[in-house]
Write a structure and sequence with these properties.
The structure holds 2 protein chains of 2 kinds. Chain A is α+β, with helices and mostly antiparallel strands. Helices cover 51% and strands 14% of the residues of chain A. In chain A, helix 2 packs across helix 3. Chain B is elongated, with a radius of gyration of 18 Å. Classes of the chains: A alpha+beta, B mainly alpha. At the A-B interface, helix 3 of A face helix 4 of B.
Protein backbone atom coordinates (compact mmCIF):
# COMPACT_ATOMS: atom_id res chain seq x y z
CA UNK A 1 0.00 0.00 0.00
CA UNK A 2 2.83 2.42 0.88
CA UNK A 3 4.51 1.95 -2.53
CA UNK A 4 1.44 2.93 -4.55
CA UNK A 5 1.53 6.23 -6.40
CA UNK A 6 -1.42 8.08 -7.90
CA UNK A 7 -0.86 9.63 -11.30
CA UNK A 8 -3.28 11.70 -13.37
CA UNK A 9 -4.01 13.06 -16.84
CA UNK A 10 -5.21 16.47 -15.69
CA UNK A 11 -2.70 18.42 -17.76
CA UNK A 12 -3.69 16.64 -20.99
CA UNK A 13 -7.39 16.90 -20.14
CA UNK A 14 -7.04 20.64 -19.53
CA UNK A 15 -5.35 20.97 -22.89
CA UNK A 16 -8.15 19.02 -24.55
CA UNK A 17 -10.76 21.18 -22.84
CA UNK A 18 -9.91 24.32 -24.84
CA UNK A 19 -6.67 24.77 -22.91
CA UNK A 20 -8.45 25.29 -19.63
CA UNK A 21 -6.14 27.07 -17.19
CA UNK A 22 -5.22 25.70 -13.76
CA UNK A 23 -7.01 28.73 -12.29
CA UNK A 24 -10.21 27.92 -14.19
CA UNK A 25 -10.14 24.32 -13.01
CA UNK A 26 -9.40 25.41 -9.44
CA UNK A 27 -12.39 27.75 -9.48
CA UNK A 28 -14.61 25.02 -10.93
CA UNK A 29 -13.82 22.57 -8.14
CA UNK A 30 -13.42 25.13 -5.34
CA UNK A 31 -9.74 24.81 -4.47
CA UNK A 32 -6.67 27.02 -4.85
CA UNK A 33 -4.62 27.03 -8.07
CA UNK A 34 -1.65 25.81 -6.01
CA UNK A 35 -3.59 22.66 -5.07
CA UNK A 36 -4.24 21.92 -8.74
CA UNK A 37 -0.50 22.43 -9.44
CA UNK A 38 0.41 19.99 -6.65
CA UNK A 39 -2.11 17.40 -7.91
CA UNK A 40 -0.91 17.71 -11.52
CA UNK A 41 2.68 17.12 -10.43
CA UNK A 42 1.46 14.09 -8.41
CA UNK A 43 2.92 15.70 -5.30
CA UNK A 44 -0.44 15.74 -3.57
CA UNK A 45 -3.15 13.07 -3.69
CA UNK A 46 -6.60 14.66 -3.60
CA UNK A 47 -9.43 13.43 -1.41
CA UNK A 48 -11.99 11.17 -3.07
CA UNK A 49 -14.46 14.09 -3.02
CA UNK A 50 -12.06 16.39 -4.87
CA UNK A 51 -11.01 13.64 -7.30
CA UNK A 52 -14.68 13.13 -8.25
CA UNK A 53 -15.20 16.89 -8.67
CA UNK A 54 -12.16 17.10 -10.96
CA UNK A 55 -13.39 14.14 -13.01
CA UNK A 56 -16.81 15.75 -13.36
CA UNK A 57 -15.20 19.03 -14.46
CA UNK A 58 -13.89 17.13 -17.49
CA UNK A 59 -16.99 14.91 -17.89
CA UNK A 60 -14.79 11.86 -17.40
CA UNK A 61 -14.88 8.89 -15.10
CA UNK A 62 -12.50 8.74 -12.15
CA UNK A 63 -10.38 6.08 -13.87
CA UNK A 64 -9.97 8.24 -16.97
CA UNK A 65 -8.46 11.04 -14.88
CA UNK A 66 -6.59 9.20 -12.14
CA UNK A 67 -4.55 6.03 -12.15
CA UNK A 68 -2.69 4.11 -9.50
CA UNK A 69 0.71 2.48 -9.96
CA UNK A 70 2.86 0.21 -7.90
CA UNK A 71 6.12 2.14 -7.54
CA UNK A 72 8.18 -0.97 -6.64
CA UNK B 1 0.72 32.41 -2.57
CA UNK B 2 -2.59 31.18 -1.16
CA UNK B 3 -4.60 32.97 1.52
CA UNK B 4 -3.51 30.52 4.24
CA UNK B 5 0.10 30.69 3.03
CA UNK B 6 0.03 34.45 3.51
CA UNK B 7 -1.56 34.04 6.95
CA UNK B 8 1.25 31.67 7.91
CA UNK B 9 3.87 34.30 7.04
CA UNK B 10 2.03 36.89 9.16
CA UNK B 11 1.71 34.40 12.01
CA UNK B 12 5.47 33.65 11.97
CA UNK B 13 6.28 37.37 12.12
CA UNK B 14 3.73 37.97 14.91
CA UNK B 15 5.02 35.00 16.92
CA UNK B 16 8.59 36.26 16.66
CA UNK B 17 7.58 39.84 17.56
CA UNK B 18 5.44 38.79 20.56
CA UNK B 19 8.09 36.33 21.83
CA UNK B 20 10.83 38.97 21.54
CA UNK B 21 8.62 41.46 23.37
CA UNK B 22 7.81 38.95 26.15
CA UNK B 23 11.47 38.05 26.64
CA UNK B 24 12.51 41.72 26.86
CA UNK B 25 9.59 42.55 29.17
CA UNK B 26 10.31 39.63 31.50
CA UNK B 27 14.04 40.44 31.61
CA UNK B 28 13.16 44.05 32.43
CA UNK B 29 10.76 42.96 35.18
CA UNK B 30 13.40 40.61 36.56
CA UNK B 31 15.97 43.43 36.62
CA UNK B 32 13.43 45.60 38.47
CA UNK B 33 13.09 42.95 41.17
CA UNK B 34 9.43 42.19 40.44
CA UNK B 35 10.13 38.45 40.49
CA UNK B 36 11.95 38.44 43.81
CA UNK B 37 9.09 38.45 46.30
CA UNK B 38 6.15 36.13 46.98
CA UNK B 39 4.10 37.91 44.28
CA UNK B 40 6.50 36.81 41.52
CA UNK B 41 4.00 34.47 39.80
CA UNK B 42 1.19 37.05 40.08
CA UNK B 43 3.41 39.76 38.54
CA UNK B 44 4.38 37.35 35.75
CA UNK B 45 0.72 36.53 35.06
CA UNK B 46 -0.25 40.23 34.97
CA UNK B 47 2.49 40.82 32.38
CA UNK B 48 1.59 37.82 30.22
CA UNK B 49 -2.25 37.85 30.35
CA UNK B 50 -2.77 40.83 28.06
CA UNK B 51 -0.44 39.37 25.44
CA UNK B 52 -3.20 36.96 24.39
CA UNK B 53 -5.62 39.65 23.11
CA UNK B 54 -2.64 41.68 21.85
CA UNK B 55 -1.44 38.71 19.79
CA UNK B 56 -4.93 38.11 18.35
CA UNK B 57 -5.48 41.78 17.43
CA UNK B 58 -1.93 42.06 16.06
CA UNK B 59 -2.42 38.98 13.88
CA UNK B 60 -5.75 40.29 12.51
CA UNK B 61 -4.27 43.72 11.68
CA UNK B 62 -1.10 42.11 10.28
CA UNK B 63 -3.15 39.75 8.08
CA UNK B 64 -5.25 42.61 6.67
CA UNK B 65 -2.15 44.75 5.97
CA UNK B 66 -0.20 41.86 4.46
CA UNK B 67 -3.09 40.95 2.17
CA UNK B 68 -3.39 44.57 1.00
CA UNK B 69 0.37 44.80 0.37
CA UNK B 70 0.32 41.41 -1.40
CA UNK B 71 -2.57 42.49 -3.65
CA UNK B 72 -0.74 45.70 -4.59
CA UNK B 73 2.66 44.00 -5.07
CA UNK B 74 1.27 41.22 -7.28
CA UNK B 75 -1.18 43.54 -9.06
CA UNK B 76 -4.10 41.24 -8.18
CA UNK B 77 -7.08 43.34 -7.10
CA UNK B 78 -9.24 40.21 -6.65
CA UNK B 79 -7.27 38.29 -4.05
CA UNK B 80 -8.41 34.73 -3.38
CA UNK B 81 -9.57 33.81 0.13
CA UNK B 82 -10.16 30.12 -0.60
CA UNK B 83 -9.22 27.57 2.08
CA UNK B 84 -9.15 24.02 0.70
CA UNK B 85 -8.30 20.47 1.81
CA UNK B 86 -4.54 20.95 1.32
CA UNK B 87 -4.62 23.96 3.67
CA UNK B 88 -6.44 21.82 6.23
CA UNK B 89 -3.83 19.06 5.86
CA UNK B 90 -1.02 21.55 6.56
CA UNK B 91 -3.03 22.95 9.47
CA UNK B 92 -3.26 19.47 11.01
CA UNK B 93 0.52 19.00 10.61
CA UNK B 94 1.05 22.27 12.48
CA UNK B 95 -1.36 21.27 15.25
CA UNK B 96 0.72 18.15 15.92
CA UNK B 97 3.78 20.37 16.52
CA UNK B 98 1.84 22.58 18.96
CA UNK B 99 0.58 19.56 20.92
CA UNK B 100 4.08 17.99 20.96
CA UNK B 101 5.86 21.16 22.14
CA UNK B 102 3.17 21.99 24.71
CA UNK B 103 3.32 18.41 26.05
CA UNK B 104 7.11 18.41 26.27
CA UNK B 105 7.02 21.87 27.89
CA UNK B 106 4.56 20.67 30.52
CA UNK B 107 6.63 17.56 31.34
CA UNK B 108 9.81 19.68 31.52
CA UNK B 109 8.02 22.10 33.87
CA UNK B 110 6.91 19.24 36.14
CA UNK B 111 10.47 17.86 36.19
CA UNK B 112 11.89 21.33 36.92
CA UNK B 113 9.42 21.82 39.80
CA UNK B 114 10.24 18.37 41.15
CA UNK B 115 13.89 19.44 41.14
CA UNK B 116 13.02 22.43 43.36
CA UNK B 117 12.81 25.07 40.62
CA UNK B 118 10.50 28.00 41.42
CA UNK B 119 6.88 28.12 40.27
CA UNK B 120 7.87 31.06 38.06
CA UNK B 121 10.40 28.87 36.24
CA UNK B 122 7.70 26.24 35.75
CA UNK B 123 5.29 28.79 34.25
CA UNK B 124 8.01 30.16 31.99
CA UNK B 125 8.84 26.68 30.68
CA UNK B 126 5.15 26.00 29.93
CA UNK B 127 4.66 29.41 28.28
CA UNK B 128 7.76 29.21 26.08
CA UNK B 129 7.04 25.55 25.26
CA UNK B 130 3.70 26.65 23.81
CA UNK B 131 5.24 29.69 22.09
CA UNK B 132 7.89 27.48 20.49
CA UNK B 133 5.15 25.03 19.48
CA UNK B 134 3.18 27.80 17.76
CA UNK B 135 6.32 28.95 15.93
CA UNK B 136 7.24 25.37 14.96
CA UNK B 137 3.68 24.84 13.67
CA UNK B 138 3.95 27.92 11.46
CA UNK B 139 7.40 26.89 10.17
CA UNK B 140 6.08 23.39 9.34
CA UNK B 141 3.13 24.95 7.47
CA UNK B 142 5.43 27.42 5.68
CA UNK B 143 7.76 24.57 4.63
CA UNK B 144 4.76 22.49 3.47
CA UNK B 145 3.54 25.34 1.26
CA UNK B 146 7.03 25.77 -0.26
CA UNK B 147 7.25 22.01 -0.90
CA UNK B 148 3.70 21.95 -2.27
CA UNK B 149 2.58 18.86 -0.38
Amino acid sequence: MGNLTITNNIRRLRFDANEMTQKDLAEKVGVTRQTIVAIEKAKYSPSLELAILISRAFNKSLEEVFDIHDAR
Amino acid sequence: MTYQDRNTVVSILMNLAVSAFVILRLLDMNASGLFDGPDAVNNWARAVIWLIPLGIVGTIIGTILFNIVFAIATNQPKTSFIIDERDKLFERRGSIAIIAFAGVGFVCAVIALALDASALTGFNIIYFGMALGALAADIIKFASYRRGH
